[in-house]
Here is the input.
Amino acid sequence: MKKSHFILALIFCQLMQAQDKNSIPTLKTLEGFLSVDFLSIDMPTNDEDHMGFTGIHYNLKLNNFYTGLGMYGAVRGKRGGFFTLGVNAGYKSYLSKKLFIDTGIHFGGGGGAGAPDGGGAFILPHLNLGLQFQKFSLTGGYSYINFFDAGNIISHQLNFGLQVPITIASADIDDAEKEFSIKNLKKSEWNRKPRRMSFMMHLNNLSVEKSATNQRGETLLGKTIRLAGFEINSYTNDHWFYFAKFDGAYDGIRAGYMNIILGAGYHFSFNQKRTNILTKFGMGAGGGGGVDSQGGVLIYPDISIEQHIASNIYLSVNKGLLMSPNSYFKTSTFGVGLKYYTNINGVLENYTTSDAKFKGFEVIVKQDAYFNAKRMLLPTENLHQISVQLNYFLNKNLYLAGQTSFANFGNAGAYAEGIVGLGLQSNYFMNDKVNVFVQGLIGGAGGGDISTGEGLIMKPSAGFNYKLNTNLALRGAAGYVKARGGELSSPFINLGVRYQLSFLNSK
Here is the structure.
């Protein structure tokens, strides 16, 4: 009798272990690649140099097809501050093990720096030949650009690019907020080295030290440009990291200035890792809002100190420079931010906690329509823009949101937004197909003659998601956008698609 009890107990334990193991979410991989490309655009006026246009994209691979998102910025010529946002679609066909043909199209919106961009909508198809190496590929070939909504920028040119494969590990969104013991995770396919990352929302002040005039002949010397934005850091080891930062002006000058900076840095910790010192150097593109950054290239040396305040959250203070390479435009920077550190999609060897949790994340691509968007000089008319929003879920219902948008129809090609905020969504209903949400966003916006004053806007909205499958949903919303100090005060609607997944988050 005792022997049979022992056997039953042993079988029960084995069943429980198998059930616990099977309950751990399946690790899924998204195959994709990061690409950087450059093209030199022939501008419509004879006395203007070509505009150097560089882009950064991330594409998901769907067999030989791919699709994704990309941004472009001017880095040469006289259109510093010319930025665009768009979606990519393409096809790769391998002629041999190393040689391939890459054909595709980019559709987007944007403009700026007084360029003849019309409403901002443009297409950029390409036909390239690529050479595959072990860890990257090089491409080059023909491309064509056309700002077709009343714009005058039409050009045929060569383009050159670099592609680096990047694989993203994830789980289904249904696994978000589920918690698992690290002991059991280490027995699963999630037993891998995590990626250390940080996310920061910050405010930066640019004190102009050198820039005799803006593009209208007015002096900027001594002015302070106030920026709001966010920064993402990804670590290669305990010390070295690379970063991307995105900022837009909300006060100090006429609305419309923004910059995008990419770079690398070194991280040093002391005081039992409660205090960090980071040195960074980056390069990127910036301009707009009347700031004459010449071609648009900016360099960014910076040092910051961070102090732990709660859980994985640090207070950051930074000091540095942001300037054109020849110092024609030069500012000293001072900023503060809140930074959140996390380890994603893996388990630390020497873990200090007993469990880890999956966190929800979503990417939304949509088209906005502002009704009767007020202009500073031109007649009032509707404004349309392409928009990308990223949401990080703090729990099942509450999320942090970051959004950027660029005009593509409505005679305001230079208009752009960079806004952040909070959102709250309901649980699903109607056969688990529909949920509703409300959100409030705030940040910088300007350009395209839209009346946003010095750039600060507020944008509350409410809407719904209709689930198509585990990852995809249709998304619609309506809301109101209001500029502080400007006449923009418009209702809006939008419609788009949402892609959801979750990441393993361990401390």
In short: Residues 195-344 form a domain with the Porin fold (CATH 2.40.160.20). Residues 2-23 form the longest helix (22 residues). The chain has a mean pLDDT of 91. The two ends are 47 Å apart (CA to CA).
